[in-house]
UniProtKB/TrEMBL annotation:
Enzyme Commission number(s): 2.7.13.3
A Pfam family per the record: PAS_7
Protein name, entry field: histidine kinase
Family matches, as InterPro entries: CheY-like_superfamily, HATPase_C_sf, HATPase_dom, His_kinase_dom, HisK_dim/P_dom, HisK_dim/P_sf, PAC, PAS
Keyword Transcription regulation tagged: no
Catalytic activity: ATP + protein L-histidine = ADP + protein N-phospho-L-histidine
A molecular function (GO) term: phosphorelay sensor kinase activity
Length: 1008
């Protein structure tokens, strides 16, 4: 997303952005000057202490100084490159990047000050008062000069001055030599000057803020001027009257469409340059003036129309309309004629009132100030724009003299204008008005004397336009031009500092510019380039030196094409890039960019390290993918091996609990419940491990849709209620739930899984007789819903919280409470996939609050609440149904017999080999086939394909029953054409519901 403009930000933030932009421009423009000044002072210091500093330390300090100065210059160049394309003159650093660039400049200033502070610790003797004073004067003078240069950014100035002065004072304090009087005087003067410069910097900061405010006001005023011009153009085109403008020679310059109709002139006659005399003569020739159409009458009308004062003429058209022509002289001697059909106005005052309202509306809405004064130069009226310009209400402005709003200099401007108006002349001039708050507003005034019907001057009208923005814009253009020139010079100096080799070729193919890195990377002799050779000459020289290999074997296909085309004089498209390898193994990336004039810029980049890293990354990726496949295969096998015995455990336990003929006793039911819970716990552990593997592999798919918490939360509480009773924990009624809401965007099944995990943990880790509270909170400001599960357990120590959501992390509680430590890690991954967050707030000794936040939404009709399946009632069958179960495991066959025994109308046939099952199905087609996937000899997929080859078995539904539970297994079964997929351990309720549904579908098809 792009950064916001200052005009769209709050006033304080926008002002700070303007000030930061001024600071950045000052930093960039002063980088070279600061470097030159620093080098000059370094030369003075070395001349003063010549012969006293060991050469190694001197060179080390000079290297540090050069590095800091080069860093500051490169920082300024990097800012210019980052802020905008080079051809945009008024580009600025984006608002979001300004603080980061200021920090970089200030850090560079601190490093610069530190280096100069270390100069005070160069091994020179301070026992010599002259040398000591010279050192102090140089250091203090340097600090004062740096403060002066960076007065525009006081933090940067202080970051330079602080390290320099602290290290200087530390050196003077550590020396056994007494402090020379001149040194003490220099330090005192330096402190005073630092204080003065600090005050001056604060004043400069205020002035800079005032400048930023003025620039923002200037941009707003420019927009107001453009809006005013557009409004005036609309008024000209839609004023409802004919308007014609004549120059000083009384030739037509502009008009609107109404002139031809109201004046009675043919439209073809209205052309630029037509004289007023020609128009009047045409009207006279066609009897437009009645009895006064003769030469004398026409001359009289020309005299009146061409007068230097405003006037009004009326005439009755031959068609009976009354047309009024208003004359308005222009300052340059021209005039404007307004042609108005006043027939309706004369008949009724309503038209006149409407016209007056429209004129008042124009005065109210325009951004040009209208200022009316009488002959005593006092205000008689002003429109809202004029009042805003002066910062006063209209009532405060009425009756005040115009001289109250100007200083002595601008009073003289008013005097000259008043004299012209007294002589009846209109005119325009620039003037600066003083607002009520003391600020100056630069305006241009088009002033016109006002006369009454008798021709007596009654006052004047001033049309004031705020031109402060234009003046500020002109100054900005001047500053921008200077900054652009400075940029060009800096860019030229920094070309050699680029890490890329750069070559410029003119449209004729001659090399015109290059940098030092180009010579290093291409190993081209400098004397060859000094001759400014043709590009083909450089390529031929490289080929002669075997830089490309005998048959270009060191270049890719793009490189062979580029070099071959260039040697043949064929063009290469802009943006073309290729790679080549030098004989020493260095890999160069070559890119070509063409300008509009046909010149070429070619860059050469050493990408040897990145190519090696890319190859290593590809190898690591291949290794990771192989490991991931191996892990998935292992998990699939482990899931199958664990689910197969669980199928028998849970299946027979379900059969015993559902046995109506010999129901288990209370003790037996208790033991069976424990058996089921243990099996389900083991199954949940298997599922959790598989879920973690799917998430890590990016294979877990969620269905995000509106989920009603009013349905899901009570359902989850009901599921953990038996566990809470066993542990003596109270489940409080949920808080914050209302009928019909709230709702979240989530996967209903996975959200229930997370909530059940949090509730189970709150029960397991609670105290005896403790309480678990669940609260739902709608966070309107963030558009989320927060679910909190609070317990009254021992709490979690702060140092253990970071380990809490790690897989298999038990927080040193192994054996104390059942569990594997995988639930919270899985919950965090599931919540993240649902675009939510999860966390914990805990106080040792006071319990814990686990919370999760999910995006809120409006609950749609039919939003899923995912109720748990119940054991379906037996469906009434119209006839006995046949089910064929192909399974090689005797225990699984016995289990399926027990489960389908709850459907007396079903006849179950068993086959332990796939070939046997195929033969039984062909001999007596069943109504439904239950088919294991892992069969000896041929697998379930091949059995399905063979079943479908027999016409009598094409429509028989086939359900896969398998311990393979990976997502790929289910997808493969769906693609193969299985009607459904049951994973082991088989849930009896789902099995019976599925069998009822598929057999009922077969009945319906048979009925048709």
């Amino acid at each position: 997303m792009p950064s916001p403009q200052p005009s769209s930000l709050p006033a304080g933030v926008a002002l700070q952005a303007e000030v930061d932009a001024l600071r950045l421009r000052a930093h960039a423009s002063g980088a070279r000057l600061a470097a030159v000044a620093s080098l000059a002072v370094a030369g003075l210091l070395l001349w003063t202490a010549q012969g006293q500093i060991p050469l190694p330390r001197l060179l080390a300090w000079l290297a540090a100084l050069a590095g800091v100065l080069l860093g500051r210059v490169l920082l300024a160049a990097a800012q210019r490159r980052a802020q905008a394309p080079a051809d945009v003159a008024d580009a600025a650093v984006p608002l979001a990047d300004q603080p980061r660039w200021l920090r970089r400049y200030r850090l560079s200033a601190a490093a610069h000050g530190l280096v100069w502070g270390l100069a005070a610790w160069l091994p020179v003797s301070l026992a010599d008062p002259t040398l000591q004073s010279s050192l102090v004067f140089v250091m203090v003078g340097l600090v004062i000069a740096a403060l002066t240069l960076t007065m525009f950014d006081q933090p940067a100035a202080l970051l330079f001055a602080g390290p320099s002065l602290v290290l200087l004072l530390a050196r003077l304090g550590s020396s056994s030599a007494p402090l020379a009087p001149t040194s003490a005087l220099a330090l005192v003067m330096g402190v005073l000057l630092l204080a003065i410069l600090t005050l001056a910097g604060r004043r400069a900061e205020r002035e800079r803020r005032h400048l930023a405010l003025a620039q923002r006001a200037g941009r707003a005023s420019a927009q107001h001027v453009r809006d005013t011009q557009a409004l005036l153009q609309q008024v000209f085109d839609h004023a409802g009257l004919g308007i014609s403008v004549f120059d000083r020679d009384k030739r037509l310059r502009a008009w609107n469409d109404q002139v031809a109709d109201l004046a009675g002139l043919p439209p073809a006659m209205l052309q630029p340059g037509v004289t007023l005399d020609t128009c009047v003569r045409h009207l006279a020739d066609h009897g437009a003036f009645g009895p006064d159409s003769g030469a004398e009458g026409m001359a009289q009308r020309l005299h009146v129309l061409g007068a230097a004062t405003p006037g009004v003429l009326r005439r009755r058209r031959p068609d009976g309309r009354l047309v009024e022509v208003r004359r308005n002289p222009l300052p340059d001697g021209g005039l404007v004629l307004f042609h108005v059909d006043i027939t309706e106005r004369e008949a009724t005052r309503r038209a006149a009132d409407e016209q007056q309202r429209m004129l008042a509306l124009v005065l109210e809405r325009t951004e040009q100030g209208f200022w009316y004064i009488d002959n005593d130069l006092r205000t008689t009226d002003a429109n809202p724009a004029m009042c805003r310009m002066l910062g006063l209400e209209r009532s405060q402005l009425l009756g005040r003299s115009i001289y109250e709003f100007v200083d002595a200099e601008n009073r003289a401007v008013f005097d000259r204008g008043v004299a012209l108006r007294a002589a009846g002349q209109a005119g325009g001039y620039e003037i600066a008005l003083t607002r009520a708050d003391g600020r100056l507003v630069h305006c241009f005034n088009n002033a016109t004397p006002v006369f009454d019907a008798a021709g007596r001057k009654t006052g004047a009208l001033g049309l004031f336009s705020d031109i402060s923005a234009q003046r500020a814009a002109a100054e900005q253009v001047r500053q921008a031009s200077a900054a652009l020139a400075q940029k060009s010079r800096v860019l030229a100096l920094t070309l050699d500092s680029l890490v890329q080799g750069v070559l410029n070729v003119d449209p004729e193919g001659r090399c015109t510019a290059w940098n030092r890195r180009f010579l290093e990377l291409l190993r081209v002799p400098a004397d060859l380039m000094d001759r400014r050779p043709q590009l083909v000459e450089v390529l031929a020289w490289q080929r002669s030196q075997d830089e490309f290999g005998a048959q270009f074997e060191r270049m890719d296909d793009g490189g062979r094409f580029s070099v071959t085309s260039a040697l043949r004089g064929m063009p290469v498209t802009s943006g073309h890039r290729y790679r080549r390898t030098r004989p020493d193994g260095t890999v160069l990336d070559v890119a070509s960019y063409f300008a509009d004039d046909g010149s070429l810029v070619r860059t050469f980049t050493d990408v040897t390290a990145s190519v090696a890293a890319e190859q290593a990354l590809i190898a690591a990726r291949d290794e990771a993918e192989a490991a991931n496949r191996a892990k998935s295969e292992f998990l699939s096998r482990m899931s199958h091996e664990l689910r197969t015995p669980l199928n028998a455990i849970l299946g027979f336990a379900q059969l015993l609990l559902a046995d109506r003929d010999e129901p288990p006793g209370a003790g037996q039911r208790q033991r069976l419940d424990a058996l089921v819970r243990g099996g389900q716990h083991l199954l949940a552990l298997i599922n959790d491990v598989l879920d973690v593997a799917r998430i890590e592999g990016g294979n877990l798919q969620l269905t995000l849709q509106p989920v009603s918490l009013a349905c899901l939360v009570p359902d989850a509480l009901a599921l953990v209620q038996p566990m809470a009773q066993d542990r003596g924990v109270v489940l409080a009624a949920p808080e914050g739930l209302q009928p019909g809401g709230p709702a979240v965007v989530a996967d209903a099944t996975r959200l229930r899984q997370v909530l059940l995990n949090l509730l189970s943990n709150a029960i397991k880790f609670n105290r005896e007789g403790g309480e678990v509270r669940l609260r739902v909170i709608a966070l309107a400001e963030s558009g989320c819903v927060r679910l909190e599960v609070a317990d009254q357990g021992a709490g979690i120590a702060p140092e253990q919280v970071p380990r809490l959501f790690q897989a298999f992390e038990r927080l040193d509680m192994d054996g104390a409470v059942e569990g594997t430590g995988i639930g919270l890690a899985l919950s965090r991954s599931l919540v993240a996939l649902m675009h939510g967050t999860i966390g914990v707030d805990s106080t040792p000794g006071q319990g814990s609050v686990f919370w999760l936040q999910l995006p809120a939404c409006s609950l749609l009709a039919g939003a899923p609440d995912s109720p748990l399946p119940a054991l379906p009632a037996p469906a009434h069958a119209s006839r006995a149904r046949s089910v064929l179960y192909i399974e090689d495991n005797d225990v699984n066959q016995l289990l399926m017999e027990g489960m389908l025994a709850h459907r007396p109308g079903i006849s179950l046939r068993l086959a332990d080999l796939p070939e046997t099952g195929l033969a039984m199905a062909v001999a007596e087609p069943p109504d439904l086939v239950l088919l294991d996937i892992q069969l000896p000899g041929i697998d379930g997929f091949e059995v399905l394909r063979r079943l479908r080859r027999h016409p009598g078995l094409v429509q028989v539904p086939v359900v896969a029953v398998s311990a393979n539970a990976m997502p790929d297994d289910l997808a493969q079964a769906r693609d193969a054409g299985f009607a459904d997929y049951l994973t082991k351990p088989v849930d009896m309720a789902r099995l019976l519901a599925l069998v009822d549904r598929l057999l009922a579908g077969g009945d319906a098809q048979a009925g048709r």
